Write a sequence for this structure.
C-alpha cells in the first residue's frame, strides 16, 4: 500500500515503540505510587514532559498531557467564563468547531473569523475582533486539509493589545515546521502525538503557567489538577520520544517532504482541469489538497484505494459526511469543485517513485 494520509495519522516510529515497550511490560506501576517502581514511572513521565517542552520551546511546567488533539482543543476553549464572547476561525478542526457549538448552546457568543480565497485569516475581520468584547480567540497554526499556515505571531501581537486569550491548534504544524510557543506569544497550544510518529491516544495542551484552566473531568490531582486520571504512561513516553526525534530531525524532514511535495505538485498541474487549493499560500511541506472539475472526490478516493493508494477527502474526523469541506466552503471554492477534493499528505517514508505511481493511477482513474 502507498500511504498518503499522514495528516490523519502517522505510522509509529520503531524507535518510539522501543522506548514504550518497557512501560507496557516491566514498568507497570502507578506513577502516583510512592514506592520505587512508581517513582521510576513518574521519572519517565517527567522526562517526556521535558522532551515535548524542548520541541516547542516552552517550560515543562506548561505541558499538560491529554488524550490527544480533540481533548486539548476542548480543554482550551473550556477555559472561557460563562456568557463570554469567543472568536474562532471558520476553518478550524471539527474538535474546535463542535466545542464552540457546545459553548454557544450554553449561552456564550461565538463569532467565526472569515478567510480569503487562499484560506488566510481576514485581516479586517481580525481588527473588528480586537475591538469587540472577545475573551478568547482560537486560530489554527496550520490547516489539516489545505496545509495553509497562519501568521500566528502577527495575529497574537494584534490581539494582545486587548489582552485577549489566544489559543492555537498546532497539531498539524509541530514536527513539520519550526514551532515556538514562546515566540508565537499565544496563551494556549494544542499538540498530538500520532501526527509526529508517536502513539495514538496522547497529546498535550500547552498553557502559560498563570493562565486559568477549567478541567473537563474531576477525580484526581494529576497534571496539576487539570487532567485527572492515571496517566497513559507508555503513550506519554512514546510522545516524548517522538518529540525528541522530531526536534533532532526537523530540518531533514522539512527539506525531504518539501522536495516530495514539489515533485507531486509539478506532476499534478500537468493534469487538465486540476486545481491545487491555496496553491499560492504558505503551506506545510507535506500537504496538497486538489480538486478536478466534474470528478466525485469520494468515488476517486475509493478507486485509488482499490489500486492500493490511501488518500483522504479532508479531515478524518469529519469523514462520513456528505457535505463539502467546511474549509473549502469558507474559502469560497465552487461547490462542485469542492466536492471533488482529494488531500495528499506525505510522510518521511514516502518516495518519489510512489508519487509517480500515484500520478499514473490518478490519471487512469479520472480518464476511465
Amino acid at each position: 500500500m502507498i500511504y498518503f494520509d499522514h495528516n490523519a495519522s502517522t505510522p509509529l516510529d520503531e524507535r518510539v515503540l522501543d522506548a514504550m515497550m518497557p512501560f507496557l511490560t516491566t514498568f507497570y506501576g502507578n506513577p502516583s505510587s510512592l514506592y520505587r517502581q512508581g517513582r521510576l514511572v513518574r521519572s519517565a513521565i517527567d522526562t517526556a514532559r521535558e522532551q515535548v517542552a524542548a520541541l516547542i520551546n516552552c517550560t515543562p511546567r506548561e505541558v499538560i498531557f491529554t488524550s490527544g488533539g480533540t481533548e486539548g482543543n476542548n480543554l482550551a476553549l473550556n477555559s472561557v467564563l460563562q456568557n463570554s464572547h469567543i472568536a474562532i476561525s471558520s476553518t478550524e478542526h471539527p474538535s474546535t468547531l463542535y466545542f464552540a457549538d457546545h459553548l454557544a448552546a450554553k449561552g456564550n457568543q461565538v463569532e467565526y473569523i472569515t478567510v480569503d480565497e487562499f484560506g488566510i485569516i481576514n485581516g479586517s475581520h481580525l481588527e473588528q475582533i480586537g475591538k469587540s468584547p472577545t475573551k478568547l480567540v482560537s486560530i489554527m497554526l496550520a490547516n489539516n486539509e489545505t496545509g495553509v499556515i497562519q501568521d500566528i505571531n502577527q495575529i497574537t501581537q494584534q490581539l494582545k493589545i486587548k489582552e485577549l486569550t489566544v489559543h492555537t491548534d498546532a497539531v498539524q504544524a509541530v514536527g513539520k515546521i519550526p514551532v515556538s510557543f514562546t515566540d508565537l506569544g499565544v496563551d494556549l497550544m494544542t499538540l498530538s502525538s500520532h501526527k509526529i510518529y508517536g502513539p495514538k491516544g496522547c497529546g498535550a495542551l500547552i498553557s502559560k503557567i498563570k493562565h486559568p484552566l477549567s478541567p473537563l473531568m474531576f477525580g484526581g490531582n494529576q497534571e496539576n489538577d487539570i487532567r485527572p486520571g492515571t496517566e497513559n504512561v507508555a503513550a506519554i513516553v512514546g510522545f516524548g520520544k517522538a518529540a525528541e526525534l522530531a526536534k533532532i530531525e526537523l530540518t531533514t524532514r522539512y527539506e525531504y517532504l518539501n522536495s516530495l511535495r514539489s515533485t507531486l505538485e509539478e506532476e499534478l498541474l500537468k493534469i487538465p482541469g486540476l486545481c491545487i487549493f491555496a496553491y499560492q499560500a504558505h503551506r506545510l511541506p507535506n500537504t496538497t489538497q486538489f480538486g478536478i472539475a466534474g470528478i466525485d472526490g469520494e468515488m476517486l478516493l475509493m478507486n485509488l484505494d482499490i489500486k492500493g493508494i490511501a488518500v483522504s477527502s479532508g479531515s478524518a474526523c469529519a469523514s462520513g459526511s456528505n457535505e463539502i469541506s467546511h474549509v473549502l466552503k469558507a474559502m469560497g471554492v465552487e461547490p462542485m469543485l469542492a466536492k471533488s477534493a482529494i488531500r495528499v499528505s506525505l510522510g518521511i517514508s514516502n518516495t518519489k517513485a510512489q508519487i509517480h505511481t500515484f500520478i499514473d493511477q490518478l490519471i487512469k482513474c479520472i480518464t476511465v
Residues 233-268 form the longest helix (36 residues). The chain has a mean pLDDT of 94. Residues 2-9+250-366 form a domain with the Aspartate Aminotransferase, domain 1 fold (CATH 3.90.1150.10). The chain is about 40% helix and 15% strand.
